[in-house]
Each structure stands twice: as C-alpha cells, then as structure tokens.
Write a structure and sequence with these properties.
Helix content of chain B: 40-55%
Largest interface: A-B, 62 and 60 residues
Strand order of the largest sheet of chain B: 1-2-3-7-4
Oligomer: heterodimer
Radius of gyration of chain B: 18 Å
Number of domains of chain A: 4
CATH topology of the largest domain in chain A: TIM Barrel
Number of strands of chain A: 23
Largest sheet of chain A: 8 strands, parallel
Number of strands of chain B: 7
Structural class of chain B: alpha+beta
Strand order of the largest sheet of chain A: 1-8-7-6-5-4-3-2
CATH topology of chain B: NADH Oxidase
Chain lengths: 799, 222
C-alpha cells in the first residue's frame, strides 16, 4: 500500500493488534521497558510484526510507544537509537508485503500543566525529538492519549517537523471522557482543527463499550474524515487473567463499526494476530461507508464543548478598554484580578469568554499567552482571543487547550492574509468584521459584500463554513440612528445567503444615552430575531440575560420553557425605582456594622460595602491603616494565641481583600497609583505544585499592603532571580511542601546569592524547620502566614 | 491485575478533615459549614479509580528502600501493589478554588486528603476480606515516603501497575503523584497472621516539624 492511499477510502485499512500482549507471552517482565527489546531481541520484534502482516494488517506500529526521552531516562539508550532500531524491526517485517510502518508515539508519562509540572513547550520538544528520529516511518500514530494538551503538543510537533501523515487516537472511559476529563467531541474538534489526518479511539475499553463513543466521534468530524478504532480484547477479567472477549466475539462486535463510517480498524491490549485475521475477514472486498456528520459549530476546552446552535453568550469583561482598574491589573500582571472577572462571568451564565489584553505600552504577545494559560487553569469555558496583533494571537492560539475563536479579521487584504492562516493552523473559528480600509459601509449591502469576501477568503484558507462568524457591527444609536436597522438587515442577509454564524458586540448601541439597559435589551432582542448567534455582552446584566431567556421561550427554542422557569420561578420583577429604594437600606445596614467587625467575622460583601461607605468621607490610606490593618492584627493575634483557626483567619483575610478591592477601585478612580508598603516576590519552587500555603501567605501579605509578585508554582530558580532583578524586591518568599523539592528551594537560594542580588529570603512549608531553613541558606523561617507578615513588616519597617 | 472504580466513602470523617484544616479544638459553626460546602463541591468532581495486583516480593526492586519497609514485609513472600486516585477533576477543583476562594480551597484540600485515606482504608478492608477467604493474611498498607522508605519508590509501583494507562495516575519529576490526591502502597501477604510494622516516628521525615508530636500525640493516635 502506498502511504498516499491511506485515506482514500477505497478499501478498509487494517491496523495491527496488541504489542505488549505478544511480548508478555514471550516472557517480558512486568515493569520492564519493552522498547529496549528492539535492540536486544530484534528478531522477536520482527517476528511479531510479521505475524500481524500475515494476518492482514496494512500498518504495523513500530515498538516505539514509550521511546521518549522521559521514559528512556536511565536506560542507557537514546531516543534515536531505540527508534531507529524499532523502525528497522518493523521495516524488515513488512519488506515486500506492501504494508506500512508507523512511528508509534505514546504519552510521555508525566502530566502537563496546569494539572502537572510538565510545560507544554517541554512536551513539544520531547515529541519533536521522537518525530525527527522517526523520519523513516511511513506514518505517525499518536495513541493512547488521555490529555488533550499533550495531543496538541504531539500534533504540532509532528506537523512542524515532518511531512508524514498523522493519525491520532485517545483513550476514553465509558462515560465518554478521558482520565483528564476530555470529551470525545473536544478531541474531535481540536485534533481535526490542528490538522490530524485521521482520528480514533484505542485501548482502555473493549469494542462493545467503545462503539457508542466511536459513533459520537464519527458524528463530530467533517464528512468522510478518516476515523479508526483499536479496542482492547474486551475488559480485564475479574480474576486478573487477561481480557474477556474471544477472537470470534471481537469479530462480531467490530462488524458493528462498519455502518458508522469507520475506515480503519485494529486491536489494542489483549488482541493477537488471530483477532486481526478476523478483521480482514469482515472487511474483505468492502469499501468504507459514508460518515454521518452533525456539522456543528463547536468551540471547546477539553472538558466543555459549546455548540453554537442557539444564542450563545460571550462575556465581554476581560477587556481593558475604558477600565482603569483593569488596565492597572494588566500592567501589574495581576492574574488574580483577571481570573476573578472570568469566574464571575462564568457563574452568571457566560458560555464563552472574550479575552482582550491589549494596551498600547504592553508586551501583548507574552501577556496573551500568560492570560490564556492562567484562564484555562481555572475556568472551563472556551475563549475568544481578541486582538489585532498577529503575534499575540499566535502566542494565545498555541497555548490554548481546545478549539478557540479568534476575534478578529476584517475585509482588509493584509489582515486576511496574516491572520486566516493562523486560524487554520491552530484549528480556530474566526470572527470577521464587516469593515475594511475604507471604513464601515453605511448600508447593509456594503457590509454584506465585505462579509462575502471574508467568507470566501476563509473558505479558501481551509476554514470550514461552520467556523466562520460575521460581525455586522453595532453603531451607536445616539450618533448614527439611521444605521441601526442596517446592522440588523446585514445580519439577516449573512445568515440567509452565506450560511455563516453571526456575532455582535451588543452594548455599544446605547453609548451616550440614558438608561442604557432599555436600548441594549431591545436591540439585543431584534438582533437575535434576525439570527444573531454569538452575543458579546456583560453577563452581569440580569436584563440582558433575561432578554435571551425570554427570546428562547418566544421562539420555541426553550422547550416547555424549562430553562426560563428554572431561572425565574419565584422571582418578581422590580422596576428600577423600586429597586433603588430597596437597595438603600441594605447599604445603610452594612455601613452600620464597622469594617473591623466585618473583617473579624469574615464577611466579604459586608466588608466591601463598609469600606466603600467609609471611602466617601475618608482617605484610602486612613481606611487601610486606621481600620483594616488593626482588624487584621486582632485576628492575627487570636491565631497566634490558638483562639482563631486557619479557616477563620482565611475568611477574615478574604473579607479584608474585598475591602481592599474597594480601596483599589477608589484609588484607580482618582487616577493615582496605589501606595505599596514594599515589594515581595513569592513562589512555590520548581518541581512542587502545592500552592495553597503560598496563596495563604500571599493574601495575608497583600492584606498588610505589600505588593506581591506571585510567580505561581513549579517556578524554576532562574525565573525567581529574574523577577527579583526586574522588580528590585528586597524580600523573596519560597514555599516547598515535599522533602524532594526542598532541594529546589536550596538551589533557588543559591542562584539568588550567586547573582549578587541583595534580597532576603524567607522560606516555609510542612517539611521545613528553623535549622533546615538555616542550612539551605534562608534568612528567615516562617512557620505560618502570620509569621511571614511579621517578617515582612520588620524588614520593611512597617508597624 | 484489577481495576476498580470504587464509590467515594459515604461519610466524610469530618473530625479528621477539620484537623487537617488546622482546627485543633472544636470548630466554630462557620468552619463546619465551610467544610460541608467544600465536600459538596468535591464529591461530584472526584472520580475515584484504583488498580491493584499481586506479585512476588522477590521480583520487586526493593534493595535500597530502607529498613522500615523490609521490616514491614518480613515473612511475606508475596505482596499486593495498590494505587488509588481521586482523579484529575479533584485537582481542577482545588486549583480553581485556590485561585478564587482560598478558605474553600483549604477545606476542599483537607476533605480530599481525608477521603482518599478513607477510600484506601475501605479498599484495604475489602482486600483483607478477600485474602482471608483464601486463608491468607495481609499487612497494613505501606506507602513510599513512610519512615526511611524513599518517595522514589512510587515510580516503581506506578510502572508495575501501569497506572498511567489503567487509572490515569502519573509520577512527576520530584516523585509527586499526579493527580495530587493519590496513594501508592504495598501490602505484604502471608500464610500466618501478620500486621506489619508502621514506620513510627523514629525515621519519619516530619519528625522535627510534626504538629501532632508538638502536642504530645502521634498521627496514628488521632
């Protein structure tokens, strides 16, 4: 078989069966590295491959599943040695048969960020090494993956370092999710988008259990996109003696896959040449059937897919335009502030989050990457990467785990040329604004003409129609009243004539007019009626969310009004006037209780309201030094005396933090910079991902007015050195929870000393003692968060 | 080899979780409510998985793993290797709470640590029952990191059990189990009644910093 004929669907392509099974039958010991047998027992390997070819396999997987630098560490062999020996074994077996040899690429065996410590870029480099070493193969197979991020690293490494076709399969549990929570649909949307040539499911389950998952996979890929399966020989037997399906049962179960449109079949753990022989029997002389795709417009993260078949809410608040506090957060790289915005929008019903981190004087590409990574560690929603800077978009797209949407291109030739290929390469959907170098056409027909041009360019770039979203642009009613209906008309035309999705930033309509909500909801409803799919709005506006809910009832999309009733049963609507009257006493109540009492009791919203009330008559500094800090001190003293426990200390800290937000808002509104009591760099050291302790210290230090540069967890020594050098922070706090990572702590302190920086270092963590801290060169040992604040206060001369 | 998807323990040992949260005396109602809230978030996020297998002790590379483990396995020719995890959903929840709601993160972390230990206890009880039915006895479970037994042994147990493929459990660079709320352990099997020896405080890495010892008790007593 020629490798170009792999995906032509003229005939079924048969894959081989289990390798580990065959090796164990030949005496491979548990815990041993099967890859080394390619060097020590090449004849045995070739023999196994040959048996599979004789049984009918068109592709044999070389014995390279675990041939990564990570897994071969300490084996005495290099990746290149093992791979070339393994490929040679397979090559000898297929000689003269027409069968092809696959470079088999398995998981690296370590969990990627954010759950693990392996960086995406490092995973990429591991796969790159494997792909380059495997250049002599006919096809690359990435298999048994459970982490979508690792899948992305592997596909990018394959595509950027080789011209071979790439097949990718993941393992799922019966609930349709991988161990890391990735769904079948997310896998399909992401892998196909990244340019995989075939996608599949292997291992973990038998053919009976995989069947419904394979059906979902076939429905989630484009028409007749190659899909393959390699199930185990059933499930493990209860007595531990192998798998529970005979070759004949396997044959019958596998026959069920043919109507789905599967075009490649094989076996995984427990299957032998006999199983593959039966696959040859059931597929003989047949051609694969057509798949029956659902052709949805999907956006996704590993754990969540959003099908944009109904009005979908894109949260607009991660955007610095016109927001001083947000701009300040971006300049300080205050990820917590951005995460808080994200989590709040998610809780209010946003289904996608727009992410705009562009400021004129900022390194937008690196900030985009940092923000995307921070967001996907905390929220499950798909992201809309919002920038006009191609470099920023590329960094964000590369770091993104799943299928995002890019906001945006427009009708300008150079923009289309620069950004559409990025969307194609990284498998993103795209927003096209109906404007070009001559501006926004006043009439619907003009905007439609641009939409048509964008759609054609996107299709030509290889982006499918269901991934194209046209923005017909909202103009403000106060300035261009006659243009409002043109936007609505253009939406209608795009939907009807181009068959694309539409998107609109809605709130701009009311700019400059009073009671903006009235106009926003009315316009939103009109736009939905004309066919708006993605609505970029502020999900905190209950009126906007209600307009959507009501629209879904009135257009019969919310069957039996179930969603509407769930959301609004038992609620009464109030007019603005009544609402204002009702809200007033609550504020007064809050002000009555003092800020100090609210903090001591750990009441977040009360503390914030009390601080806001005080700020009307007092200077920010007076509120902090006169009320906030003394309250914290009282709580801290109680903690030291054993009267207040950690959870209470934390609740108080959280209340103080929300009061601080009110203070920061007031300062940002004044336009002045927040006053800091001093800068402190904090990090959980390399190799360690326990960050709760570090986060506790951070909150307490911030409570006392210190500026904390939080480098996160698993932070390499050089990153700490760089942060101290750039910030000039006189104090560094390091945290480690494991005996094994105290070594990293010591290395970090040494690196700080060697770089000649004058900073002091305080350390903390469960396994440390004062003596141990001294031994590794730390200046201070902080037994808890309270103590770290005491150290900082002393060092910075703060009372 | 057996792969299990055991249910979570029905009742959280709240007293233990509160101790992990730093409450050395009776907790106030707000703290108890915090723990309940955290448990409610944790239960749907956790996906417990376990895998175990029996193998001859002599086939395991236990040469440089300290005297405590050797003492524990005295008289046992075979052993059960066990790995249990609460899954990656637990980690996602903890990470999210850690960034957004620290008090709840501390409570959820404590609840998860308690639940994984309870789950291990339940699996151990079930194993003991199974072996007793065959006329055999098993020791208590012993995990890498106890006493003078190195954490690095975790990688060996993980490789033997193929935990990455079987239950999604991996070992990171510093011997860190990921997902975080996971346990690997070994239990000796014997013809005679055995209990094994817990490592005790003498060789424990936390000997000098242990909060329990400062109060004059030990973690086993509590």
């Amino acid at each position: 078989m020629n490798r170009n004929d792999l995906f032509t669907r003229d005939k079924y392509v048969l894959l081989d069966g289990g390798m580990g099974t065959m090796l164990q039958a030949r005496g491979l010991k548990l815990g041993a590295r099967p890859e080394l047998l390619s060097i020590t027992e090449p004849e045995m390997l070739t023999g196994i491959h040959r048996e599979y070819v004789q049984a009918g396999a068109d592709i044999v997987y070389a014995n390279t599943f675990g041939a990564s630098a990570k897994k071969l560490e300490g084996s005495g062999y290099s990746v290149a040695q093992v791979i070339s020996a393994s490929l040679a074994c397979a090559r000898r077996a297929v000689q003269g048969t027409g069968a092809l040899v696959a470079l088999d690429v398995g998981p690296l065996g370590e969990l990627l960020e954010p759950a693990g410590t392996l960086k995406f870029e490092d995973a990429y480099r591991c796969f790159q090494e494997i792909v380059i070493a495997g250049a002599q193969a006919d096809v690359i197979v990435v298999e048994t993956m459970t982490d979508l991020y690792e899948v992305k690293a592997a596909i990018l490494a394959a595509k950027e370092n080789s011209t071979l076709p790439v097949m990718v399969s993941m393992s799922f549990e019966q609930n349709g999710r991988s161990f890391t929570g990735c769904t079948v649909e997310s896998f399909a949307a992401t892998a196909v988008g990244l340019g995989a040539d075939a996608v599949g499911i292997n291992c973990s389950l038998g053919p009976v259990e995989i069947l419904p998952l394979a059906q979902r996979l076939c429905q989630s890929v484009p028409k007749n996109f190659p899909v393959f399966v390699k199930p185990n020989a059933g499930l493990p037997r209860a007595d531990g003696s192998g798998y529970d399906i005979t070759p004949e049962m396997f044959r019958d179960a596998m026959a069920q896959y043919l109507p789905l449109g599967i075009c490649m079949l094989g076996g995984c753990c427990g299957t032998t040449p006999q199983y593959i022989g039966y696959l040859a029997q059931i597929t003989k002389g047949k051609a694969p059937q057509d798949t029956k795709p659902l052709q949805r417009s999907l956006l996704c993260t590993p754990v969540k897919t959003v099908d944009v078949c109904d009005v979908t809410v894109v949260g607009e608040r991660i955007n610095p335009t016109g927001k001083k506090r947000f701009q300040q957060a971006l300049r300080e790289r205050d990820m917590d502030y951005i995460l808080a915005q994200a989590v709040d929008q998610e809780s209010r019903g946003a289904q996608v989050l727009d992410v705009n981190v562009g400021l004129p004087d900022i390194d937008e590409p690196s900030l985009m990457e940092q923000t995307v990574k921070a967001l996907q560690s905390v929220v499950d929603l798909p992201l809309q990467l919002d920038s006009s800077n191609p470099a920023a978009l590329e960094r964000g797209l590369r770091a993104y785990n799943g299928k995002p949407i890019v906001n945006s291109v427009n009708g300008e030739e150079s923009v289309l040329r620069n950004i559409l290929p990025l969307c194609k390469k990284y498998g993103a959907a795209v927003v096209g604004l109906t404007l070009d170098q001559s501006g926004i056409p006043p009439k619907a027909e003009g905007r439609f003409a641009i939409a048509k041009r964008i759609t054609e360019a996107a299709l030509a770039a290889g982006i499918p129609r269901e991934d194209i979203y046209i923005d017909c642009l909202t103009l403000t009613a106060s300035a261009q009243q006659e243009a409002v209906v043109e936007t609505l008309k253009a939406i209608h035309m795009c939907k009807q004539q181009l068959g694309v999705r539409t998107v609109l930033g809605v709130s701009n309509i009311s700019f400059g007019l009073p009671c903006r909500t009235y106009l926003n909801t009315a316009f939103f409803t009109l736009a939905m009626y004309e066919g708006l799919d993605l609505a970029i709005i502020n999900p905190s506006s209950s009126e906007m969310m209600a307009a959507r809910a009501a629209f879904r009832v009135l257009t019969n999309r919310d069957a039996k009004s179930m969603d509407y009733v769930n959301a609004y049963a038992g609620m009464t609507t109030v007019s603005t006037l009544q609402a204002a009257g009702a809200a007033a006493p609550a504020v007064q109540d809050a002000a009555k209780g003092s800020l100090g009492a609210a903090i001591e009791k750990g009441l977040k919203s009360e503390a914030k309201a009390a601080a806001a009330e005080m700020l009307k008559t007092m200077q920010p500094l007076e509120v902090v030094d006169g009320h906030l800090i003394p309250a914290l001190d009282r709580v801290g003293e109680g903690f030291e005396a054993g009267k207040v426990f950690l959870p209470q200390l934390l609740q108080s800290a959280a209340a103080a933090q929300s009061a601080f937000e009110a203070v920061k808002d007031a300062i940002a509104a004044e336009g002045s910079a927040s006053e800091s009591k001093g800068k402190i760099v904090l990090a959980t050291v390399k190799g360690d991902i326990h960050d709760i302790g570090k986060n506790i210290v951070k909150v307490i230090l911030e409570n006392y007015g210190f500026t904390v540069l939080d480098l996160g967890r698993d932070v390499p020594p050089e990153a700490v050195v760089q942060a101290v050098r750039e910030s000039g922070a006189p104090l560094v706090g390091l945290s480690a929870l494991m005996t094994t990572t105290v070594k990293s702590m010591e290395e970090t302190i040494r690196a700080l000393h060697e770089s000649g920086l004058a900073c002091k270092v305080m350390v903390g963590g469960a396994v440390l003692t004062p003596e141990y801290a001294e031994m590794i060169g730390a200046d201070y040992y902080a037994k808890d968060a309270k103590r770290s604040a005491d150290i900082a206060k002393k060092l910075f001369g703060v009372n | 080899m057996k792969i299990l998807q055991p249910p979570l323990p029905k009742e959280l040992d709240a007293a233990q979780a509160l101790r992990y949260m730093g409450c050395t005396q009776k907790a106030d109602p707000a703290t108890e409510a915090l723990l309940q809230k955290a448990e409610a978030l944790l239960r749907p996020a956790a996906q417990p998985h376990a895998v175990w297998m029996e193998c001859p002790v002599a086939e395991l590379p236990l040469q440089n793993t300290g005297s405590d483990l050797a003492r524990h396995l005295q008289g046992c020719e075979n052993a059960v290797l066990l790995a249990v995890t609460l899954g990656s959903g637990t980690d996602r929840l903890l990470q999210r709470l850690s960034a957004t709601e620290l008090p709840a993160a501390v409570a959820a972390d404590a609840a998860a640590s308690t639940l994984i230990e309870q789950l291990c206890d339940e699996i151990e009880r079930e194993l003991r029952r199974e072996y007793q039915a065959r006329g055999l006895y098993i020791t208590g479970r012993y995990s890498p990191g106890y006493g003078d037994c190195p954490l690095a042994l975790q990688s060996v147990f993980a490789a033997y059990l193929d935990t990455g493929r079987k239950i999604g459990l991996t070992v990171g660079g510093s011997g860190l189990l990921l997902p975080r709320k996971s346990v690997t352990a070994i239990l000796g099997i014997s013809q005679k009644p055995v209990t094994g020896y817990r490592a005790g405080c003498a060789h424990c890495v936390l000997q000098k910093t242990c909060q329990y010892r400062k109060r004059g008790v030990s973690c086993e007593q509590e």
